[in-house]
Amino acid sequence: MSQNIMSQLSLFSNELVLATTNNEDGKHTSSATPIKQELVAKVFKLNIEIIFNILRKHNHLDKRYQYFDLNAGIELIDNKNGAMSFLKSIAEHRRRNSHLLKFRAILIDNNELNLSNLREKINEFIETFKSDTEKQYFRKAIKMYNEDHQVVMEKWLKVPYNKEYVYGMLYHDPFGEPSFDLLEKFSHLYSRIDILLNCNCCQVKRDLKNKVCKNELRLQEHIDDIDKKYLVCSTELLSCWQFWLMIFTNWNKYPKQKGINVTQYDKGTFESLMTKANFTKKEIKDNAISINFRD
Question: What is the mean pLDDT of the chain?
Fold first, then answer.
């Protein structure tokens, strides 16, 4: 990780009381979910605008925004979740900019019911378009996979085209531990696609203590393995599960947003957050902690 790591995302309220719940349909949500969804929508809008300005200045680049969503059907509340936020953001951008920005969306979810509900909401959204041409374009641009995201993404990692010229975003929002090995592989090949991760820090710590799990790394070690120079992160760990929203990127010019700018290598907020994310309360109390914030 580079020393120039930035924190651009808005502050969450300190007074939130967050408890994870299961809805009747089995979806995992919390009182933090609407706040996270609003923040993710802002990230998509910002990222799309940045990439649009980059692509129109360089003819050698792939002119299509590439979006991957590894958990596309989760937390579909009031027609909102990550996948829907992206599609609404890209649709709004195309309307405002003469439909110049092309895109392809790969939506993955191994839960058939979740994906079916998402497909229904996407179809309803597309039907609101006035242009039949735009309806047709969206239907062709969206690809949905009812499979494990590891299986689908392994195929995309092997696609024989120059990944160096592809821009976009990969969004990963698992309830359990993130697929860090996959994110590491992806980051090596898609250097210009940012990775947006909603990380369940408590699950990472639990798996580390569980002898049955194969995980032997702390969160910081997982982060260091992702081949991106900069990290843009939320400034609080949310709920009892300590969800932490992060953008891994090789671009150091994200516009500043309302909030606190914190680098991973300062001696303040970021190191405090990283300590909480990496270690249990008992480990911190016993001072059984050691983090190497490497350059």
Answer: 82
Share of the chain above pLDDT 90, in %: 47
Q: What is the DSSP letter of 16?
A: -
In sign, the C-alpha dihedral spanning 153, 159, 163, 169 is: negative
Asked if residues 293 and 218 have their Cβ atoms less than 8 Å apart, the reply is no
Residue 108: CB partners within 8 Å, gap ≥ 6? 68, 69, 70, 71, 72, 144, 145, 147, 149, 152, 153
Domains assigned to the chain? 25-229 (3.40.50)
| Residue 35 or residue 43, greater confidence | 43
- The strand pairing partners of 64, in sequence order, are 102
Question: How many angstroms separate the Cα of 132 from the Cα of each of 92, 98, 100, 127, 138?
Answer: 16, 15, 17, 9, 10
Rounded mean pLDDT, 227-241? 82
Radius of gyration of the chain from Cα atoms?
19
Q: How many CB atoms lie within 10 A of CB 28?
A: 16
Q: Helix (H, G, I), strand (E, B), or coil: what is residue 107?
A: strand
Mean pLDDT of 184-193: 95
**Secondary structure element (H or E) that encloses residue 246, with its range:** strand 243-249
Residue 193 contacts residue 207 (beta carbons within 8 Å) = no
In angstroms, the CA 39 to CA 106 distance is 21
Pair type for strands 168-172 and 102-108:
unpaired
Positive or negative, the CA dihedral 15, 20, 22, 26 is: positive
Q: pTM value?
A: 0.85
Q: What stretch of H or E contains 137? A: helix 132-141
How far is Cα 211 from Cα 214, in angstroms, rounded to an integer? 8
Residue with tokens 């092997």: 158
214 burial via Cβ count (<10 Å: 0-12, 13-18, 19+): exposed
Query: Could you count the other beta carbons within 10 Å of the beta carbon of residue 230?
Result: 21
Please give the structure tokens belonging to residue 36.
Answer: 């996270």
Look at the block and give the residue holding tokens 């002119």.
63
